[in-house]
Amino acid sequence: MMNPNDLDGRTVRFINFATGNAMTLDTQEEYPPNGRKVHSWSLINDDNQWWTLEIIAGKGSETPIFVIRSKKAEGKCLDLDHGSSRNGTVITGWQGAKVGEHGLGPDDHQLWHIHTRATWAEKGQIVKIQNHGAWTFVDLYNGGSKNG
User: Which parts of the chain fold into alpha helices (H)?
Assistant: First the structure.
């Protein structure tokens, strides 16, 4: 099983284990407005399904804190809408603060833990993504398997 610290600086695609769909920023623009929805979509050959991981705190620990940046949309980070801890809270792409700009970095709703769970020989690492501020996990709304 991979140490989450080894993910620092990597560009990855998060694929749902059950559906085979990828976590996708809903945009074809390089500079989309804030608030574009992040949802599940079948695999396509586009950068809006790829994410760059950056550890901004806790490097070397079992649970480092990451900022997850869109490869497609410059400056947009994975963002838990308004930092809500309610089930069903939308995840969006939102302009991220630069690391160190406000102490730790972006607001807690843009900070994430990536928990490695296992290795699946055919598809790579199995992970769970948890918001640092709300302590909730990324999942499919109502377990849905359709695009969107």
Answer: none
